[in-house]
Amino acid sequence: xxxxxxxxxxxxxxxxxxxxxxxxxxxxxxxxxxxxxxxxxxxxxxxxxxxxxxxxxxxxxxxxxxxxxxxxxxxxxxx
Length: 79
Fold this sequence. Notes:
The protein is mainly α. It has 2 helices and no strands.
């Protein structure tokens, strides 16, 4: 439980507020799809689910070998 309320950043708070607004409007308009969408956004904010939280947006940090025959040095020659 303590883990759920740590490391709150701006996007996580925005996700929670957007979910509350969607769910509130869904209740006001009696729209079950909006209620479900708002609940999903609030759940994602509480448990910190997103594509980037799972490491899905990261790039590879390993360095690939660069061979000299792939990149040839530029030599300006006046002709």
